[in-house]
Amino acid sequence: MEPSATVLLLNGLVSVRSGGRRIFLSAFQSCGAVLNYFGHRLRSLGFDVYSLEPWSIIPGPRAGDVLICLSASLETAPVVLGLVHADAGGLHKVVLTARSEVEVRQRFQDVLPVRIPDLTGDHGAATEALRSLFPQSSLFEVRAFLYLEAVVESLVEVLGSARSRWRVLATRAQACSRPWSGCAGPRRVSAAW
Fold this sequence. Notes:
Low-confidence stretches: 178-193
Structural class: alpha/beta
Helix content: 40-55%
CATH topology: Rossmann fold
CATH architecture: 3-Layer(aba) Sandwich
Order of helices and strands: HEHEEHEHEHHH
CATH superfamily: Glucose-6-phosphate isomerase like protein, domain 1
Strand order of the largest sheet: 2-1-3-4-5
Shape: globular
Radius of gyration: 20 Å
Mean pLDDT: 79
Number of helices: 7
Number of domains: 1
């Protein structure tokens, strides 16, 4: 993954939040699940996020809003169609894919490609071990998930305000897990009688 693309993505996301613009997410099947979780995490940080799923009701995108797509092959018809319409609507576009930056830029104008490597090419014994554990596509989703989690953690550090909120929640959860803590929630009973 190119560090410069990650820096551009982080700067763009901070700008979107401070500018009150919206983020639209486009991906399907297991990539959709990964991107929807990312959207959930962004919402918890105060972003205005909408998932482009079938039968979803979303506000009309405005020029300056952002479309984030996740597709290993960049051949998924709804994702490609969304990118084409985003060109016409003046949206900023981010594509997380296994395709090279050159391939992505040849197909779409004014897009920020973030390459998440898959298992193509010869990478030796480590690649064979990974192939035995994951089907080709699921390794891409695992890598995408980890990358997007790192993006969220970086945003938490940059934005700062959410960090204290997470600490309060973690402290409450820890207090409730101790027996006789005074927490109104469920109590854990010791196995030793």
